Amino acid sequence: MAKFTIPEEEYMNPGHVGCLGCGACNAMRYTLKALGPKTIMSIPACCWAVMPGPFPAKCLEVPLINTAFEVTGASISGIKAALDAKGITDVTVVGFAGDGGTADIGIQALSGMVERGTDVIYIMYDNEAYMNTGIQRSSSTPIGAWTTTTPVGNTKDWKKQPKKNMMDIMVAHKIPYAATCSIGYPEDMIKKLRKAKEIRGPKFIQVFAPCPTGWRMLPENTIEVCRLAIDTAAQPLYEVENGVYTISRKPKELKPIKDYMAIQGRFRHLPVEEIEAIQKTVNWEWNRLLKLEEFTKGLVEQ
Amino acid sequence: MVMTGNYASAYGAKVCRAEVISAYPITPQTSIVEKIATLVSSGEMKAQFVKVESEHSAMAALISASMTGARTYTATSSHGLLLMHELLIWAAGARTPIVMSNVCRANGPPWSVWADHHDAIAQRDTGWMQVFCEGNQEVLDSIIMAYKLGENPNIRLPTMINEDAFILSHTVEPVDVPEMEDVDDFLPPYNPRFKLDVDEPYGFGSLVMPEMYMEFRFKINEAMEAARQGWRDVEKDFEKKFGRNHGGMVEFYQCEDADAVLIMAGSIASTAKDVVDKLRSEGKKVGLARIRIFRPFPVEEIRKLAGMTNILAMCDHSYTFGHWGPMAQEVRGALYDLADKPLLKNYIVGLGGKDMTPEVIEKIYLKTLALKDGLDADIEWIGVKGHGGW
Question: What CATH number matches the domain at A23-297, 3.40.50.970, 3.40.30.10, 3.40.50.300, 3.40.630.30?
Fold first, then answer.
């Protein structure tokens, strides 16, 4: 008989108000399954500020504080400090923020939190744009994507800049643990979160969380697009522990990035030569990651 | 002990056993956080000090710490306070009884590190209670009173303790630091009924629909209204325990039979009291009313003042560009319903640390006494070069 690798306990009840096929929804569900009920969660402005349900409803079975958009890192620092002051040591403090709240408006508070060595888990659920406000570009939006503020139009005004690499930024902070995960690979995600829970100091988890509404794709393709993101190396799964890189999932041969882009409407406008240029970047980034893994392997013993 | 207003602030946080401190340095607040860091590192003060990367994060961290059930303290000034603005509204909305010292300093540009009240006044509508202090003892004592009142389950509001830059922050005065055991008797540990607790997993601050939002705001205002009597009571209780008071919401000095009364807030009142004594000795019947609690606004006390004199003049240390000084507006509003109103003149004084010497204040008094035949102008900026500066 197959063994359950995902905990059966549920800490997210029915009644959330997320969209059909919402990746952020599973990101929360798996996070709580991994971390359990002794968790305090801080959520800034983002889809999840709304998704627990309007007052007095709340679909999460953990204490939850809503905070301003840009303060997640500071908020969880404050919760942790208060728990320390009270001598409470068995509670995991989690910040759960979107990519805009993390990579853009919240990056200062996050940077401060990590630099101070705060013993918390910061989770960035990455749906690659400001989805709660209606699909505006963030610095985490990938190159080539349509959003409502990169509307393509006659001037070909799609997003021209590459996605900000938050993992690199976290590694530059000498963070003890940073990992990417994906709701398409829940076992891997739960394993990484549990590992993060056991490590003291700041932890950063970037969860790939597709948004069918914003990515202009069918809700039933959420998991499919997660798998393609790994198979094409659009969003590789890896972790960095004390500077040592480990790639969690290595496809034998990468699928072409166009396979990943083809099932999403947000890349539909891209001419072939743009897709080819993006393919080169993806190859370069993947090779860089392989080299980083190889290069840092020898650091394990130190 | 002899100490600056800033050290009085730090000792205030210490004797109240603040459990979480979070702050970012800004002139002239820095010696508060330096002193607290020293007290924490020496073990004299048992607190978590979160050394954040901005004032914005300082306030955000304290809101979350307060909601986790900790007593919290921070200090800031001027631009640091302005940067906090969003979170000040959040702190009141979240009903967190944070206490914050604000070293009142002018806002740039042009850069100025000297005293005026524009920083604090610009936060008038955030839902914070505001105290303006005349001296360093009052700075310390007000912190104790602010926790006592702010943590009252019927109030649950944050408080800003305003002390003037340099005039208080860096000037030493004798200050009695109460014994911690006495403060413990007066101020029990903070233990809110609702907090972030894994055994009772409530959610805080979620979205509310229009049919519920206004109710939350109504309750904040209800608490602020209750805090009017709250300040009167807490100061009486404080006096019973510690043997001193600071004059209630508005301190009246020689107002009873005065021909003219100046209204002020902050440290300038200390100089003005000397001027009142001098003018009284010369037979000129003048008085001083010092607004100590600015939020909630002491409407009753201001109305009482109307029965004492025929000429009032508000000396504002800030300005609402386009409409008088803000305290003058509020005093005027409080007087509106009275049938028999005194004259009310508004002086704008001492912006960016422009020195308010006894001579300047005396001239203002004489100018005000001369208004017995009627107002010359609603408002007058004092000492502006090229505009009647004297």
Answer: 3.40.50.970
